[in-house]
Amino acid sequence: MNSCANRGxxxxxxxxxxLRVKKNIEEGRGFRLMDRxxxxxxxxxxxxxxxxxxxxxxxxxxxxxxSVNYSGGIIITDWxxxxxxxxxxxxxxxxxxTNEIRSDALNIIVFRKTCSINNQCEISKSSNNxxxxxxxxxxxxxxxxxxxxxxxxxxxxxxxxxxx
Length: 164
Hints:
By secondary structure, the protein is an alpha+beta fold.
């Protein structure tokens, strides 16, 4: 069995284990046993720790969703028609390529369906303008969520409390 887990960038972590523990706890990546004992209530956070996922769902909240699969990393909307363009509708597919908030993390495809009066419809892949604007908005929202999470989870950790 190959155990090549992503352990992060070693250049961004302090070499001293005590400082690494301090940094991880301040950023909300660790936990303190006594904090867990005090707050022992059940708390389920389905996919809320993934900022890209949350931001995508929040941005698309006005559209009906056809398929949503967190473990598969895909969101597919149903056809959406704006009231002003009754013969035209769009469908959006978002594939998550990574959990990191970066420009290549998402693959967004927008399909446009145009129907004639006789209900003959033509489906085509829309220009990248809508996909790029959508990606930009999702990434900005995800960055805000990440900052809020980091601020919320920040707890000062004193090195003197660390027992060897």
